[in-house]
Amino acid sequence: MLKEKLQEIKDSNTNLYQHLNNVLTKILLDNPKNAFELFEDYSFQVKSSGFSFDKYNEFDNAERTKISMDQAIQQKTLKLVNKINLGTDEEPQEATQTGYLPNLTEEAYLYEWAGIGIDENYKIFKALSLLSVTKQASKLRFWGKIMAREKDYYIAEGVANSQVEDGELPPEVEPRGSGVNTKSYWACTDILNDKDWVELPLITPQQINVSRQIKYMFTGNLEADVITNPYFFGKEKHLLKAQIVRITQSTVIIPKGQYILREGEPREIDQTPEYKLPGFHELKTLNDWMHFNTNILNCGRLVHLIPSELPDGVEPDIYQKQIEAADPFENRLKQLSNDKLPNNKPAWKIRIVGDTTDYNPLAKDTNNKVNNGVIIIKSLVWPGLVTVYSNKVLSQLYYGYGFKATTNHFYPKQPQQVQTEQPDLPEQPEPNFPAEVPQQQQD
Amino acid sequence: MDISFNDLKFIQQIGQTLNMEERIKLKLAILKIQEHYTFDEVLFWGRVEGVEKDYYIAMGIQYKGQYEFPLKKFYWSSNNYHFAELPKYNEEYASRADNLREPFTGQHEHIVFKTEEEINFEDSLDIPAQLPAKHFSELERLSYVVQQVEFNCASIPVGSYRLTPTHELIRKAFKGVKAELKNYQHFRVPTRKDKQDLIARDEALYREDFLDSLVDDTPNQQWSLQADSTQRNITLRNLIWPGYVTYNNDYTFGYAYFGDGIKNSDFEFLL
């Protein structure tokens, strides 16, 4: 009886019975301490916000979607973590050829000691092995992650299948397999989608030089235009490759002595014969490490370009010496302790973490000597580049935005001044001759 | 971030984490802070990397008895894992610290730049011994960076806290938010007029977004909202202070700073 009575007192949207229900429900849910004082406030709020208790779903706060994972994502994840299946579910086809891939899950444990966390490392590892099979890439490894504004890039480094054709290349571009284009890189923003891995294109020396002058934050879209001054000829994927190559060429390091200079050709290196990776104690300082790669020259290549047609009267040897003097090589296998930042501080930082006790120090067989300490070397020139070494495992990774550390602020170069137009000549009125008077005909 | 460190997987999306030794020692050290000053919550705020050593920052929050916004107190420690209160920085020189690009060294007494402060002793009968000029030390730079990041970046998802009728903040049962920038708000005393009015009118009690919204931050592109491959673990990163992350999934939320303490002040030129 009371219920009907209350239901009769109504407004346009609701009736008193409904409204009382709503107010009481809201008060019960919020559970304020001074509900008595706030009762009128609640009533007002419920009226203005149109809260309705039967439509209230405890899970509907803040426009949240239900706690469930998208079906498609579930399936893709399962497919990724299972054994590689190149066929369909009905006709499974096993992958037979997978190139060598370092075990990322084990290396992630080392990186954790360095304070670098690789999220979803197992999924990345499986995605890389899938890449190795589908693109027939060998010597693949996880290079790192370049973070961007919309989506991050996962980068894999390797050697591409030799049957890829590149077509005609301009002479100054170092062809695939040599110079800056020695290794191939693949980028991907979605590791669940194996078709997402895109091989980054070959880059020109001009692109490298422009990338040295600009600072650009990646967006996450490989085909985005890069709008900077000086103008970058290429899309985001070219700039991405350029940054990756710059980072790799200047920061790959190896223990001292693993490679030696070749006699007679000081620019080439060979593996030291009968070399064993040293133990923990021999690698604790910067002196014990050296650079592996050559640096990129000022012209944007690794090796100078000798044009096929030299001007008359110039010997090839002398020409080579001239351009080498103008743009000198740096020594190969430089020690890390010599690298300095512009302010003369060391360009690397080295730390030792973990359990550094020597286990079994007196064992005769050096293989039984164990030291679980982890040596971490981080670059201060390219912040984000980390090398870890522990128990004969050496690994390297980059996690960052792709910026070089700078001491000054970055100001983009001003575009050249556009010349002002010449002022127009003042306009003169058209000569307005009086209409021709026909001359009197003279007889 | 909670000191059980279950949430580190979010920070791994930007490539940072705490190793085993750090986790164990930090947990013990942060719990020790409670011995001196009882906070409602003591959280791990973040790690500022230095060349020789790193700094760890903890934050204590007091909700009860605080009108309008909880009290936050910051503590710092070097790798001796012994927390001390983070001192105030010298305001006049602080803005110069904003533009520093050099990494932190890890030595907290390191002089960042020399100041010319005169110490006047007027009318003092006994002339004290010559006091050295107080230069801007790295600890002050750290304090400044922590305050800047906390003010400019610290953010939480909408629906995580409520304002009680007595204007205290309490935590709600968090159920997750959709990954959109408008679903996040600053975790600080509201500075923008529209939110201040909301609170003054007491309407904030009924709304979830009563703190400054991130959508009104300028430049707006400084926030990057991404998720991992499951699309349920969402991280909201700041690009002007790279290393700052607000994270949430359907069960939990939080924020932390894992970086080198250097502001990306040429952000506007990078777009």
From TrEMBL, chain A:
Q: Which GO terms describe its biological process?
A: axoneme assembly; cilium movement; cilium movement involved in cell motility
Location of region: Disordered: 414-443
**The protein's name:** Radial spokehead-like protein
Give the subcellular location. Cytoplasm, Cytoskeleton, Cilium axoneme
**Superkingdom of source:** Eukaryota
Gene Ontology cellular component terms for the protein in this record: axoneme; radial spoke
- Just give the chief location class: cytoplasm
Instruction: Show the CDD domains listed in the entry.
Output: DD_CrRSP4-like
User: Which PANTHER family does this chain map to?
Assistant: RADIAL SPOKE HEAD 6 HOMOLOG A, RADIAL SPOKEHEAD-RELATED
Keyword list (alphabetical) reads: Cell projection, Cilium, Cytoplasm, Cytoskeleton
Which organism is this entry from?
Paramecium tetraurelia
TrEMBL record, chain B:
Identify the Pfam families for this entry.
Radial_spoke
Q: Which UniProt keywords apply?
A: Cell projection, Cilium, Cilium biogenesis/degradation, Cytoplasm, Cytoskeleton, Flagellum
Report the GO terms under cellular component: axoneme; radial spoke
**Cell compartments where the protein resides:** Cell projection, Kinocilium; Cytoplasm, Cytoskeleton, Flagellum axoneme
Please give the InterPro entries that the UniProt record associates with this protein: Radial_spoke, RSP9
User: Is this entry keyworded Cytoplasm?
Assistant: yes
Query: Per the UniProt entry, what are the Gene Ontology biological process annotations, in alphabetical order?
Result: axoneme assembly; cilium movement involved in cell motility; motile cilium assembly
Family under the similarity heading: Belongs to the flagellar radial spoke RSP9 family.
What's this protein's name? Answer: Radial spoke head protein 9 homolog
Q: Which organism is it from?
A: Paramecium tetraurelia
